[in-house]
């Protein structure tokens, strides 16, 4: 059974307003009742190059990107040649009347210039494509106005007129496409990308401080917090470097404000010493690592999942940690909340691994019921402390009551050295093992709270696809295609990659005839981790490390090959 | 009234005769004199002999990583502006490892009092040159003498128009107490570079060496005159001026956040109703 969806690929140069119309068009499709899934690929430049905004939509949930294109919207001639081969049979491309096109391509010749004047090709394209796909003009216009913003009335008005003339032109000159009708889910869904969901999840959990140094693809988390900082009472500080960013967050957290630090691999490399500081000083901090291909600068605006081992081992010395790897918008929101809660509860560093693809991927989601959700408010009641307060009192759980500095007469002393229970430097080597054990005991609590991997699909499959983070949807779609073809396939997806609890998944791996690990890296990092922890060895790993997101087609191709 | 005794009296790991002792004494006197109780104060430090100071005085403490005291202090002050935040650092921690944070913190002008115990040498790691060591200063690690020119923290801070820039000397106790009190009262970042002998590893810049050179700044110096302060900041050698070199009334960093105007962030609960409305923006 093939999943009935439409994939509209908008291609052009940076600076052509690709993202503006892409976002507006996505929103218009969602408002028309479709389920949407966006994949953005772009070069690391502000002008020129070749960028893509691909919107896959359907009446039912869209889980993953696809490589097949059903409508190619070209904002420049190059796009026609670059994506010719991806076009499904019988599909068309929108292009200017003057542009050269590959032989045999079905091109709808749009008079971009006469419809828009210079510089509004994006809006013309949106109007024409919208009309061909049967999206109502007022829905397109409303979405465009929202994206362009209310503060720019002149720009909005111009775009509105151009959109209208393009729509009218398409009505008279283009064949309507045979797209599946929309399902109009209730309540109306909202459209977010992965990092907006992370940011909103953080806010909902009580995060009020964020420090960051700009770096793709993590900046969008900070930008989301900045966007709502006034309404929600949040301070976001652009630090002088990543070292400062995480140390500021640790300072704010120590003083009682839940804090998040978004970065990417290179920036996280600079933060590693402070990860260890958060652990020994037992200060909550959430670090989001938006992965991109390395080593070093790598491919700044492409995607990869190659920092699992790095994050797992980052920080000198031994201490417990939790690592989350959301695979959907819902997981971006709820696991960020979970990360904030766990950091506070176990008083240490907690990590969230996303990647460029997930960060930028817009999807629709039911509005989160935030008014029903709890949040973190750090610090215990000082009235409950008997006698002299000891920040690091040795307890059975390893978690010591956390007071905040300056809110009572108790003195709160935190230290990066090995320390006494009251937080002062010590070289007492009989105390040292007790402090090490106290910190490590927190892991026992964290293990009890691990989010189990999701098992999706039929029991006792012939094939089980195993992965983590953003590849979830691609694996699910690949498995359902295989199952429809008669090869029973399931998915095991880890949205928390550390700690691993063998009892939660080993049976599933052993029950399948073949287990294949699917990862966006070259060496199979999750496969290696599972082997290390359980002894289970994957006979095959589907790896992708060309900078592009995992797709169902890619997985199926590798399985067949 | 808060007494000096409330700040405690602890055994230290400093060498006998260390310049840190008079600085610690002055710090206690300054805070008690300002009627600040230990629980109102947060000491933030990094690593080094000076950075151990918070362990020898009563107060709230965050003793973090080498060079990283300023970012921690910045985060803590933004989270709870009611805290009196004192940064305890040395020349290596502040001007070496933490150099970038030093520049950025001065530009931000967070209301912090930054005490830099400047002994022109690394003590904790046993006698290597520091960013403020004089050119030609010979150590076991720099047997041919230091090649680099010394970092002038006062000139850099004045050039960046820091809110408050002063120099003090560990051997001038009463003056040091005054400088610390002025620094704490100042609303914005106050840098106090405190010259201090290292009896173990710096046999050049001794008590006597400093005593012969440190002279209170002329009464007619106007610390609000940036150009004159800039000129004074370069004065070093046979005479070393101590006192307030420069000050201005730039607003403190935290005073500029609209979200902090009504109350500190500390203890605020997220307005989930408002967040629900925000979600609808994404419809």
Radius of gyration of chain A: 25 Å
Count the helices of chain A. How many? Answer: 19
Strand proportion of chain A, as a percent range, falls in: 15-25%
The counted number of beta strands of chain A is: 21
The low-confidence parts of chain A are none
If you average the pLDDT of chain A, what whole number results? 95
Structural class based on helices, strands and sheet pairing of chain A: alpha/beta
Alpha-beta classification of chain B: alpha/beta
- Measured by DSSP, the beta-strand proportion of chain B falls in 15-25%
Largest inter-chain interface?
A-B, 69 and 58 residues
Largest sheet properties of chain B? 8 strands, mixed
Shape, per Cα inertia axes of chain B: globular
Per DSSP, the total helix count of chain B is 9
Mean pLDDT of chain B: 97
Ends of chain A: how far apart?
22 Å
Write the layout of secondary structure elements.
The complex is a heterodimer of chains A (561) and B (283).
Chain A: E1 6-14, H1 18-31, E2 35-41, E3 48-58, E4 69-74, H2 77-83, E5 87-96, E6 106-110, H3 112-116, H4 121-132, H5 137-148, H6 153-173, E7 190-192, H7 194-204, E8 209-212, H8 219-227, H9 229-232, E9 235-238, H10 242-254, E10 259-263, H11 265-280, E11 285-291, H12 308-313, E12 322-324, H13 329-346, E13 349-355, H14 356-360, E14 363-365, E15 413-415, H15 431-448, E16 454-456, E17 463-468, H16 472-484, E18 489-494, E19 496-498, H17 506-511, E20 514-519, H18 525-534, E21 540-543, H19 552-560
Parallel strand pairs in A: 1-4, 4-5, 5-6, 8-9, 8-10, 10-11, 11-13, 12-13, 17-18, 17-20, 20-21
Antiparallel strand pairs in A: 1-3, 2-3, 7-14, 12-19, 16-18
Chain B: H1 20-33, E1 41-45, E2 60-63, H2 69-79, E3 84-90, H3 91-97, H4 99-108, E4 113-118, H5 153-159, E5 164-169, H6 173-185, E6 190-195, H7 207-213, E7 214-216, H8 226-233, E8 240-247, H9 272-280
Parallel strand pairs in B: 1-2, 1-3, 3-4, 4-6, 5-6, 7-8
Antiparallel strand pairs in B: 5-8
Helix pairs in contact in B: 1-6, 3-4, 5-8
